[in-house]
Amino acid sequence: MNKLLSINSYYYRRGGAEVVFLEQNRLLQDIGWQIIPFAMQHPKNFRSEWESYFVDEIEFGGNYSLGQKMLMASKVIHSFEARRKISELIEVTQPGVAHAHNVYHHLSPSIFSALKAHKIPTVMTLHDLKLACPAYKMLTHDGICERCKTGAIWNVVQHRCIKESLILSSVILMETALQRLLGSYANNIDRFVVPSRFYLEKMVEWGWPRERFAYIPNFVDLDHLQPRGEPGEAFVYFGRLGPEKGLGTFVRAIASAGAAGWIVGTGPEEERLRHLAKETGANVEFLGYRTGESLFDIIRNAKAVVLPSEWYENGPMSIMEAYALERPVIGANIGGIPELICDNETGALFPSGNVDALAECLRRFTNMSKASALAMGKAGRNWMRQDFTDIRYRERILALYKEMEVCT
Predict the structure, then answer these.
(1) What are the beta bridge partners of residue 122?
(2) What end-to-end distance do the CA atoms of the chain give, in Å?
(3) 204 vs 213: CA distance, rounded Å
(4) What is the rounded CA–CA span in Å between residue 72 and residue 356?
(5) Which of 358, 361, 299, 357 is nearest to 327 (CA)?
(6) Structural domains in the chain, sorted by start
(7) Are the C-beta atoms of 389 and 381 separated by less than 8 Å?
(8) Do 217 and 388 touch, CB atoms closer than 8 A?
(9) How many CB atoms sit inside 10 A of residue 158's CB?
(10) Quick check: helix, strand or coil at residue 368?
(11) Could you give the CA distance from residue 302 to residue 327 in angstroms, rounded to a whole number?
(12) How many C-beta neighbours within 10 Å does residue 23 have?
């Protein structure tokens, strides 16, 4: 039996990375693989027979003593506990391959040297740009940032890139310096999976060998996401309300176009955006956090989904989910977004951060017939069916594993 050691900080549906991690587990389990998870202890975790090997819980931002904070900081840099426990788990289970997702800070890259020592072929999916940018996003207070490209990682402290905190930024600087010195990623991981071609090219641009990367896009469950009815009139954004998401541009464009907008989600920008909507007179409704059918019904009732990002997005699941529900997508021309939008066929592209250009797109879609908008959405769903299904994803993952000679 093929055995996968599947690694992620959390073992429950916390965010997009966790969804990919858990769905990949399911897809391989469906064809007879044994899945051995390794994660952090957490009250929301799914149960596992291997949970006794999970590392102790760390939740940053809690009410911890100085000593506890210092201990957590040391684990961020290098977790001896994680290295010891994953070694014990390997000894008991003898997996044929390891596949890691998000491991930073809670598990730490210390686990990769243990995998190497046990001669376990290792894959890591890059859900962000952490291997290049200490702050993950190549984004700081003054916009897109590639200051660390030449190795000048002290910029993370100089610009306080981690939550605008000198202390947190200093911890991440030390963590990044140590991992690069040890070669935690470069020397111990065999292949990196990237969900967008943009991320692959960006990593190569920053000096990584092209042959270390495999482009495997994310996928969408078309059976679960069923379209229904004609488009409505409003334009919807759904996701985290963070400064990198370009929602100020969205609100201003809604006001300029005289359109109706819905914002679904929560996050640190919510109060500022509410104030901006009131200030500009934008017809924007804030619908709060939604999930499942409640969220899908909102998307079904929209004219189009808008993704106005102002950072290097990877392969946004929100675009795939919109297409699955037969709704077109208006997206910023940045990061991996353009790879998922066929301009004038499945949606529209506009220059990131350009209010006037987005407003023009909104006007065009407002004047577009529902039949034309639905035709774009159907084209998107057909595209997903052709190349972005769970079965295609599994085929690509298995092809990578076979290339590494770790499965039959």
Answers:
(1) 98
(2) 9
(3) 9
(4) 46
(5) 299
(6) 3-131+185-219+389-403 (3.40.50.2000), 234-387 (3.40.50.2000)
(7) no
(8) yes
(9) 14
(10) coil
(11) 8
(12) 17
Q: Look up residue 104 and give its two tokens.
A: 């930073």
Helix (H) / strand (E) element for 224: namely none
Tokens 């957490």, residue? Answer: 42
* C-alpha span between 62 and 381 (Å, rounded): 42
118 backbone φψ class: left, alpha, beta (φ>0; ψ -120 to 50): alpha
Euclidean distance between CA atoms 80 and 153, whole angstroms: 24
Enter the DSSP assignment of 211.
G
- Quote the tokens at residue 4: 């996968």
Whole-angstrom distance, CA of residue 90 vs CA of residue 347: 47
Residues 277, 247 contacting (CB under 8 angstroms) = no
User: Nearest-CA neighbor of 103 among 82, 85, 121, 80?
Assistant: 82
Model confidence, pTM? 0.89
Alpha-carbon span 93 to 164, nearest angstrom: 42
Burial tier of 25 (Cβ tally within 10 Å: 0-12, 13-18, 19+): buried
Q: How far apart are CA 153 and CA 407, in angstroms?
A: 38
Q: Residue 150 corresponds to which amino acid?
A: T
- 51 vs 49: CA distance, rounded Å: 6
Give the Cα separation of 172 and 155 in Å (integer).
11
Query: Is 79:110 a contact under the CB 8 Å cutoff?
Result: yes
Structure tokens at 278: 């009131």
pLDDT tens sequence for the chain (408 residues): 799 999 999 999 888 889 899 999 999 999 999 999 999 999 999 999 999 999 988 665 555 454 454 455 555 666 889 999 999 999 999 999 999 999 987 888 999 999 999 999 999 999 999 999 999 899 998 889 999 998 899 999 999 998 888 988 998 898 888 888 888 999 999 999 999 999 999 999 999 999 999 999 999 999 999 999 999 999 999 999 999 999 999 999 999 999 999 999 999 999 999 999 999 999 999 999 998 899 999 999 999 999 999 999 998 999 999 999 999 999 999 999 999 999 999 999 999 999 999 999 999 999 999 999 999 999 999 999 999 999 999 999 999 999 987 654
